[in-house]
Amino acid sequence: MQQRIAHRLVSSSSRLLVAIAVVSLQTQLSFASELLPPLKTDGPHILDSTGSPIRLSCVNWYGAEEKDYVVGGLHKQSISYISQLVKTFGFNCVRLPFSLELVLHNPTIPTYAVTAEKSLQGAKALDGLDKVVNSLSSQRVAVILDNHMSNADWCCSASDGNGLWYTAEYDEEDWIGALETLVKRYKRQNYVVGVDLRNELRSTVVNATHLRPTWGTGHNTTDWHAAAERCANRLQSVNSDLLIFVEGLNYATDLTGVMKHPIQLTVPSRIVYEAHDYSWFHRSGLSYEQYKSEITQQWGYLAKTQPVWLGEFGTCNTASSCYSDRNSAVSFHRQTDATGWWSNVHRFVTETGIGWSYWALDGTESTGRGRHFGAPESFGILNSSWNGPSAVGLLKSLQELLD
Protein backbone atom coordinates (compact mmCIF):
# COMPACT_ATOMS: atom_id res chain seq x y z
CA MET A 1 0.00 0.00 0.00
CA GLN A 2 1.35 3.35 -1.03
CA GLN A 3 0.94 6.43 1.10
CA ARG A 4 1.26 10.08 0.18
CA ILE A 5 0.54 13.00 2.47
CA ALA A 6 0.68 16.48 1.01
CA HIS A 7 0.40 19.79 2.79
CA ARG A 8 0.20 23.17 1.15
CA LEU A 9 -0.44 26.61 2.55
CA VAL A 10 -2.13 29.18 0.39
CA SER A 11 -3.11 32.72 1.34
CA SER A 12 -6.43 34.10 0.19
CA SER A 13 -7.24 37.62 1.40
CA SER A 14 -7.16 37.46 5.20
CA ARG A 15 -7.73 33.74 5.48
CA LEU A 16 -5.27 30.88 5.48
CA LEU A 17 -6.41 28.03 3.29
CA VAL A 18 -4.81 24.76 4.16
CA ALA A 19 -4.52 21.93 1.70
CA ILE A 20 -5.57 18.80 3.44
CA ALA A 21 -3.66 15.62 4.08
CA VAL A 22 -4.44 13.38 1.14
CA VAL A 23 -4.08 9.66 1.49
CA SER A 24 -3.49 7.71 -1.71
CA LEU A 25 -4.43 4.06 -1.46
CA GLN A 26 -4.12 1.26 -3.97
CA THR A 27 -7.79 0.42 -3.46
CA GLN A 28 -10.59 2.79 -4.39
CA LEU A 29 -12.42 3.84 -1.21
CA SER A 30 -16.10 4.66 -1.05
CA PHE A 31 -16.86 7.86 0.85
CA ALA A 32 -20.08 8.76 2.62
CA SER A 33 -22.32 11.08 0.62
CA GLU A 34 -23.19 14.44 2.15
CA LEU A 35 -26.24 14.46 4.39
CA LEU A 36 -28.89 17.15 4.21
CA PRO A 37 -30.42 18.08 7.59
CA PRO A 38 -32.72 17.98 9.41
CA LEU A 39 -32.77 14.23 10.00
CA LYS A 40 -35.50 11.87 11.15
CA THR A 41 -35.93 8.14 11.62
CA ASP A 42 -38.04 5.58 9.81
CA GLY A 43 -37.89 2.02 11.09
CA PRO A 44 -34.18 1.14 11.39
CA HIS A 45 -33.13 3.97 9.08
CA ILE A 46 -32.08 7.58 9.52
CA LEU A 47 -33.33 9.78 6.69
CA ASP A 48 -32.18 13.21 5.57
CA SER A 49 -34.46 16.06 4.50
CA THR A 50 -34.87 14.55 1.03
CA GLY A 51 -36.06 11.25 2.48
CA SER A 52 -32.85 9.46 1.50
CA PRO A 53 -31.38 6.93 3.97
CA ILE A 54 -28.06 8.10 5.37
CA ARG A 55 -25.45 6.51 7.58
CA LEU A 56 -23.87 8.60 10.32
CA SER A 57 -20.17 7.76 9.86
CA CYS A 58 -18.53 9.88 12.49
CA VAL A 59 -15.54 10.57 14.68
CA ASN A 60 -15.37 11.67 18.29
CA TRP A 61 -13.44 14.94 18.67
CA TYR A 62 -12.90 15.07 22.40
CA GLY A 63 -11.37 17.61 24.76
CA ALA A 64 -14.18 20.03 25.54
CA GLU A 65 -15.44 17.66 28.23
CA GLU A 66 -12.11 17.79 30.04
CA LYS A 67 -10.21 20.42 32.03
CA ASP A 68 -9.04 22.40 28.98
CA TYR A 69 -12.68 23.26 28.11
CA VAL A 70 -11.95 23.10 24.40
CA VAL A 71 -11.52 20.43 21.73
CA GLY A 72 -8.09 18.87 21.40
CA GLY A 73 -5.47 19.78 18.84
CA LEU A 74 -5.67 23.57 18.91
CA HIS A 75 -2.13 23.78 20.25
CA LYS A 76 -1.05 22.28 16.90
CA GLN A 77 -3.57 23.28 14.22
CA SER A 78 -6.50 25.62 13.71
CA ILE A 79 -10.12 24.54 14.02
CA SER A 80 -10.68 25.10 10.30
CA TYR A 81 -7.71 22.92 9.38
CA ILE A 82 -8.87 20.02 11.56
CA SER A 83 -12.45 20.39 10.31
CA GLN A 84 -11.20 20.10 6.74
CA LEU A 85 -9.30 16.94 7.64
CA VAL A 86 -12.51 15.40 8.99
CA LYS A 87 -14.28 16.22 5.74
CA THR A 88 -11.45 15.08 3.49
CA PHE A 89 -11.09 11.74 5.24
CA GLY A 90 -14.75 11.09 4.39
CA PHE A 91 -16.52 11.34 7.76
CA ASN A 92 -19.91 13.04 7.65
CA CYS A 93 -20.34 13.91 11.31
CA VAL A 94 -18.58 14.59 14.60
CA ARG A 95 -19.71 13.52 18.05
CA LEU A 96 -18.68 16.45 20.21
CA PRO A 97 -18.28 15.66 23.93
CA PHE A 98 -18.79 18.43 26.50
CA SER A 99 -19.24 18.75 30.26
CA LEU A 100 -22.04 20.43 32.19
CA GLU A 101 -19.30 22.42 33.90
CA LEU A 102 -18.34 23.97 30.57
CA VAL A 103 -21.90 25.03 29.78
CA LEU A 104 -23.00 26.20 33.22
CA HIS A 105 -19.78 27.99 34.25
CA ASN A 106 -18.37 28.95 30.85
CA PRO A 107 -14.74 29.19 32.03
CA THR A 108 -11.94 30.88 30.13
CA ILE A 109 -10.03 28.57 27.81
CA PRO A 110 -6.40 28.17 28.97
CA THR A 111 -3.95 29.80 26.56
CA TYR A 112 -1.73 26.70 26.27
CA ALA A 113 -4.62 24.78 24.71
CA VAL A 114 -5.20 27.21 21.80
CA THR A 115 -1.76 28.44 20.73
CA ALA A 116 -2.58 27.49 17.11
CA GLU A 117 -6.05 29.08 17.27
CA LYS A 118 -5.31 32.72 18.10
CA SER A 119 -8.97 33.73 17.94
CA LEU A 120 -9.67 31.74 21.10
CA GLN A 121 -6.88 33.08 23.27
CA GLY A 122 -8.62 34.66 26.24
CA ALA A 123 -12.01 33.42 24.98
CA LYS A 124 -14.71 31.66 26.93
CA ALA A 125 -15.44 27.95 26.54
CA LEU A 126 -18.80 28.44 24.84
CA ASP A 127 -17.12 30.69 22.28
CA GLY A 128 -14.76 27.82 21.54
CA LEU A 129 -17.66 25.41 21.14
CA ASP A 130 -19.37 27.89 18.79
CA LYS A 131 -16.31 28.11 16.61
CA VAL A 132 -15.99 24.34 16.34
CA VAL A 133 -19.68 23.89 15.50
CA ASN A 134 -19.59 26.66 12.91
CA SER A 135 -16.41 25.36 11.31
CA LEU A 136 -17.71 21.81 10.98
CA SER A 137 -21.03 23.10 9.68
CA SER A 138 -19.24 25.14 7.03
CA GLN A 139 -17.77 21.84 5.83
CA ARG A 140 -21.26 20.28 5.85
CA VAL A 141 -20.16 17.95 8.60
CA ALA A 142 -22.97 17.21 11.04
CA VAL A 143 -22.52 17.65 14.79
CA ILE A 144 -23.95 15.49 17.57
CA LEU A 145 -23.64 17.20 20.95
CA ASP A 146 -22.63 14.65 23.59
CA ASN A 147 -23.06 15.28 27.31
CA HIS A 148 -20.04 13.25 28.27
CA MET A 149 -19.51 14.35 31.87
CA SER A 150 -20.92 16.67 34.52
CA ASN A 151 -17.60 17.63 36.09
CA ALA A 152 -14.93 18.44 33.53
CA ASP A 153 -12.64 15.41 33.41
CA TRP A 154 -11.66 12.27 31.52
CA CYS A 155 -14.36 9.61 31.43
CA CYS A 156 -15.18 6.94 32.61
CA SER A 157 -15.02 4.90 35.81
CA ALA A 158 -17.26 3.71 38.62
CA SER A 159 -15.44 6.06 41.00
CA ASP A 160 -15.73 9.38 39.14
CA GLY A 161 -19.22 10.15 40.46
CA ASN A 162 -20.55 10.78 36.95
CA GLY A 163 -22.25 7.47 36.24
CA LEU A 164 -25.81 8.79 36.33
CA TRP A 165 -27.42 11.83 34.73
CA TYR A 166 -26.97 13.74 37.99
CA THR A 167 -24.09 14.01 40.46
CA ALA A 168 -23.48 15.36 43.95
CA GLU A 169 -22.70 18.75 42.40
CA TYR A 170 -25.07 18.86 39.41
CA ASP A 171 -28.70 17.81 39.79
CA GLU A 172 -31.20 16.74 37.12
CA GLU A 173 -32.33 20.29 36.44
CA ASP A 174 -28.71 21.36 35.89
CA TRP A 175 -28.35 18.54 33.37
CA ILE A 176 -31.51 19.32 31.43
CA GLY A 177 -30.92 23.06 31.69
CA ALA A 178 -27.41 22.80 30.25
CA LEU A 179 -28.66 20.73 27.31
CA GLU A 180 -31.49 23.21 26.74
CA THR A 181 -28.93 26.02 26.68
CA LEU A 182 -27.01 24.35 23.86
CA VAL A 183 -30.12 23.35 21.93
CA LYS A 184 -31.32 26.96 22.02
CA ARG A 185 -27.86 28.24 21.15
CA TYR A 186 -27.61 26.08 18.01
CA LYS A 187 -31.27 26.01 16.98
CA ARG A 188 -30.51 27.89 13.75
CA GLN A 189 -27.44 25.81 12.98
CA ASN A 190 -28.93 23.04 10.83
CA TYR A 191 -25.85 20.86 10.94
CA VAL A 192 -26.27 20.36 14.68
CA VAL A 193 -28.45 17.32 14.03
CA GLY A 194 -28.72 15.62 17.40
CA VAL A 195 -28.04 15.42 21.12
CA ASP A 196 -26.53 12.44 22.93
CA LEU A 197 -28.27 12.90 26.28
CA ARG A 198 -25.66 11.28 28.53
CA ASN A 199 -22.53 9.20 28.13
CA GLU A 200 -22.08 5.66 29.47
CA LEU A 201 -24.58 5.19 32.30
CA ARG A 202 -22.92 3.01 34.95
CA SER A 203 -22.69 2.21 38.64
CA THR A 204 -21.60 5.20 40.68
CA VAL A 205 -21.57 6.82 44.10
CA VAL A 206 -23.63 9.96 44.74
CA ASN A 207 -23.56 11.54 48.20
CA ALA A 208 -22.04 8.39 49.71
CA THR A 209 -24.78 6.19 48.23
CA HIS A 210 -23.94 3.48 45.72
CA LEU A 211 -26.40 3.56 42.81
CA ARG A 212 -26.82 1.44 39.71
CA PRO A 213 -28.79 2.79 36.72
CA THR A 214 -31.93 0.90 35.74
CA TRP A 215 -34.31 0.93 32.78
CA GLY A 216 -38.07 1.20 33.23
CA THR A 217 -38.17 0.43 36.97
CA GLY A 218 -39.86 3.69 37.98
CA HIS A 219 -37.22 4.46 40.60
CA ASN A 220 -36.63 8.22 40.52
CA THR A 221 -32.98 7.99 41.49
CA THR A 222 -31.95 5.27 39.04
CA ASP A 223 -34.45 4.95 36.16
CA TRP A 224 -32.50 6.17 33.15
CA HIS A 225 -35.39 5.41 30.78
CA ALA A 226 -37.67 7.84 32.62
CA ALA A 227 -34.98 10.51 32.98
CA ALA A 228 -34.11 10.29 29.28
CA GLU A 229 -37.76 10.79 28.34
CA ARG A 230 -38.09 13.80 30.65
CA CYS A 231 -34.99 15.39 29.17
CA ALA A 232 -35.76 14.53 25.55
CA ASN A 233 -39.27 15.95 25.66
CA ARG A 234 -37.97 19.20 27.16
CA LEU A 235 -35.41 19.47 24.38
CA GLN A 236 -37.99 18.70 21.73
CA SER A 237 -40.08 21.63 22.97
CA VAL A 238 -37.12 23.83 21.98
CA ASN A 239 -36.14 22.09 18.72
CA SER A 240 -38.25 19.21 17.46
CA ASP A 241 -35.93 18.54 14.51
CA LEU A 242 -33.08 17.10 16.59
CA LEU A 243 -32.31 13.42 16.77
CA ILE A 244 -32.29 12.20 20.36
CA PHE A 245 -29.54 9.67 21.11
CA VAL A 246 -30.15 7.50 24.19
CA GLU A 247 -27.38 5.22 25.38
CA GLY A 248 -27.80 1.87 27.06
CA LEU A 249 -26.81 0.89 30.59
CA ASN A 250 -23.48 -0.47 31.83
CA TYR A 251 -21.16 1.73 29.77
CA ALA A 252 -23.66 1.77 26.88
CA THR A 253 -23.43 -2.00 26.37
CA ASP A 254 -26.97 -2.97 27.47
CA LEU A 255 -30.11 -1.95 25.59
CA THR A 256 -32.15 -5.02 26.56
CA GLY A 257 -34.62 -2.83 28.44
CA VAL A 258 -35.86 -1.31 25.19
CA MET A 259 -37.77 -4.52 24.44
CA LYS A 260 -40.28 -3.81 27.22
CA HIS A 261 -39.77 -0.09 27.67
CA PRO A 262 -38.94 1.79 24.45
CA ILE A 263 -38.32 5.53 24.65
CA GLN A 264 -41.51 7.49 23.91
CA LEU A 265 -40.96 10.97 22.53
CA THR A 266 -43.42 13.82 22.17
CA VAL A 267 -42.24 14.15 18.57
CA PRO A 268 -41.85 10.63 17.13
CA SER A 269 -39.32 9.49 14.56
CA ARG A 270 -36.39 11.12 16.31
CA ILE A 271 -35.06 8.43 18.67
CA VAL A 272 -31.71 6.73 18.03
CA TYR A 273 -30.48 4.07 20.45
CA GLU A 274 -26.75 4.16 21.10
CA ALA A 275 -24.28 1.43 22.06
CA HIS A 276 -20.53 1.43 22.67
CA ASP A 277 -18.09 -1.40 22.09
CA TYR A 278 -14.44 -1.97 22.95
CA SER A 279 -12.29 -5.06 23.10
CA TRP A 280 -12.21 -5.05 26.91
CA PHE A 281 -15.99 -5.55 26.93
CA HIS A 282 -15.42 -9.10 25.63
CA ARG A 283 -13.39 -12.13 26.52
CA SER A 284 -10.46 -12.88 24.25
CA GLY A 285 -10.58 -15.09 21.21
CA LEU A 286 -14.27 -14.90 20.28
CA SER A 287 -15.20 -16.19 16.86
CA TYR A 288 -17.35 -13.85 14.81
CA GLU A 289 -20.46 -15.94 15.48
CA GLN A 290 -19.80 -15.83 19.23
CA TYR A 291 -19.19 -12.09 19.12
CA LYS A 292 -22.32 -11.51 17.01
CA SER A 293 -24.40 -13.56 19.43
CA GLU A 294 -23.21 -11.47 22.40
CA ILE A 295 -23.81 -8.18 20.64
CA THR A 296 -27.19 -9.22 19.27
CA GLN A 297 -28.47 -10.16 22.72
CA GLN A 298 -27.30 -6.89 24.30
CA TRP A 299 -28.21 -4.32 21.64
CA GLY A 300 -27.73 -5.57 18.09
CA TYR A 301 -31.23 -7.06 17.96
CA LEU A 302 -32.58 -3.52 17.62
CA ALA A 303 -30.87 -2.95 14.28
CA LYS A 304 -33.67 -4.74 12.41
CA THR A 305 -36.42 -2.42 13.64
CA GLN A 306 -34.87 0.67 15.27
CA PRO A 307 -32.04 3.06 14.46
CA VAL A 308 -28.96 1.90 16.37
CA TRP A 309 -25.73 3.86 16.39
CA LEU A 310 -22.35 2.61 17.59
CA GLY A 311 -21.38 5.88 19.27
CA GLU A 312 -17.94 4.71 20.43
CA PHE A 313 -15.55 2.01 19.34
CA GLY A 314 -11.81 2.25 18.90
CA THR A 315 -8.53 0.46 18.58
CA CYS A 316 -4.85 1.27 18.97
CA ASN A 317 -2.81 2.97 16.26
CA THR A 318 0.54 1.75 17.54
CA ALA A 319 0.90 -1.45 15.49
CA SER A 320 -0.58 -2.83 12.29
CA SER A 321 -2.00 -5.76 14.29
CA CYS A 322 -4.39 -3.27 15.94
CA TYR A 323 -6.45 -2.85 12.78
CA SER A 324 -5.28 -5.28 10.10
CA ASP A 325 -4.77 -8.96 9.32
CA ARG A 326 -8.22 -9.62 10.77
CA ASN A 327 -6.32 -10.30 13.99
CA SER A 328 -6.54 -7.11 15.98
CA ALA A 329 -5.04 -6.87 19.41
CA VAL A 330 -6.05 -4.20 21.88
CA SER A 331 -6.95 -3.84 25.53
CA PHE A 332 -7.74 -1.12 28.01
CA HIS A 333 -4.05 -0.67 28.71
CA ARG A 334 -3.20 -0.51 25.00
CA GLN A 335 -1.44 -3.85 25.11
CA THR A 336 -2.19 -6.97 23.09
CA ASP A 337 -5.36 -8.84 24.05
CA ALA A 338 -8.84 -9.70 22.77
CA THR A 339 -7.55 -11.19 19.52
CA GLY A 340 -9.89 -10.62 16.62
CA TRP A 341 -12.12 -7.96 18.18
CA TRP A 342 -11.47 -5.32 15.49
CA SER A 343 -12.23 -7.83 12.77
CA ASN A 344 -15.45 -8.79 14.53
CA VAL A 345 -16.79 -5.29 15.11
CA HIS A 346 -15.74 -4.26 11.59
CA ARG A 347 -17.67 -7.17 10.10
CA PHE A 348 -20.72 -6.55 12.29
CA VAL A 349 -20.93 -2.90 11.23
CA THR A 350 -20.52 -3.90 7.59
CA GLU A 351 -23.19 -6.59 7.71
CA THR A 352 -25.80 -4.60 9.62
CA GLY A 353 -25.15 -1.21 8.02
CA ILE A 354 -25.47 0.59 11.35
CA GLY A 355 -24.00 4.06 11.81
CA TRP A 356 -20.94 4.58 13.96
CA SER A 357 -18.55 7.06 15.55
CA TYR A 358 -14.89 6.14 16.02
CA TRP A 359 -13.06 7.04 19.25
CA ALA A 360 -11.17 9.16 18.58
CA LEU A 361 -10.12 11.73 16.02
CA ASP A 362 -7.63 13.27 18.46
CA GLY A 363 -3.90 12.98 17.89
CA THR A 364 -3.01 13.99 21.45
CA GLU A 365 -4.52 13.73 24.91
CA SER A 366 -6.34 16.52 26.72
CA THR A 367 -6.10 17.31 30.44
CA GLY A 368 -7.95 14.88 32.69
CA ARG A 369 -7.62 12.11 35.22
CA GLY A 370 -4.74 9.88 34.17
CA ARG A 371 -4.19 11.95 31.01
CA HIS A 372 -1.42 14.36 30.06
CA PHE A 373 -1.99 17.31 27.77
CA GLY A 374 -0.12 16.88 24.48
CA ALA A 375 0.81 13.22 25.00
CA PRO A 376 0.21 11.06 21.91
CA GLU A 377 -3.29 9.54 21.77
CA SER A 378 -2.80 5.86 21.08
CA PHE A 379 -6.33 5.47 19.71
CA GLY A 380 -6.26 8.59 17.57
CA ILE A 381 -6.89 8.76 13.83
CA LEU A 382 -4.62 11.80 13.62
CA ASN A 383 -0.93 11.92 14.43
CA SER A 384 0.44 13.97 17.32
CA SER A 385 1.01 16.96 15.01
CA TRP A 386 -2.66 16.84 13.96
CA ASN A 387 -1.70 17.17 10.28
CA GLY A 388 -2.27 13.66 8.93
CA PRO A 389 -3.16 10.09 9.89
CA SER A 390 -1.38 8.37 12.74
CA ALA A 391 -1.61 5.11 10.81
CA VAL A 392 -2.75 4.92 7.20
CA GLY A 393 -3.94 1.36 7.77
CA LEU A 394 -6.29 2.44 10.55
CA LEU A 395 -7.74 5.23 8.41
CA LYS A 396 -8.17 2.86 5.49
CA SER A 397 -9.95 0.32 7.69
CA LEU A 398 -12.40 3.01 8.82
CA GLN A 399 -12.90 4.28 5.29
CA GLU A 400 -13.95 0.75 4.31
CA LEU A 401 -16.96 1.30 6.55
CA LEU A 402 -18.06 4.47 4.76
CA ASP A 403 -21.01 4.38 2.40
What can you tell me about this protein's structure?
By secondary structure, this protein is α/β, with parallel strands linked by helices. The strands form 4 sheets. The protein has an 8-stranded parallel barrel with strand order 6-7-8-9-12-13-14-15. Helix 4 packs parallel to helix 5. It is built from 9 helices and 15 strands.
Gist of the model:
By secondary structure, this protein is α/β, with parallel strands linked by helices. It is 24% helix and 17% strand.
Query: How large is the radius of gyration?
Result: 20 Å
Range of strand content:
15-25%
Number of strands: 15
Count the DSSP helices: 9
Helix content: 10-25%
Uncertain regions: pLDDT < 50 for 5+ in a row? 1-32, 326-338
Strand order of the largest sheet: 6-7-8-9-12-13-14-15
How many strands, which pairing sense, and closed or not: the largest β-sheet? 8 strands, parallel, barrel
* SSE order: EEEEEEHEHHEHEEEHEHEHEHEH
Category from helices, strands and their pairing: alpha/beta
Global shape: globular
- The N- and C-terminal alpha carbons lie at a distance of 22 Å
Mean pLDDT: 90
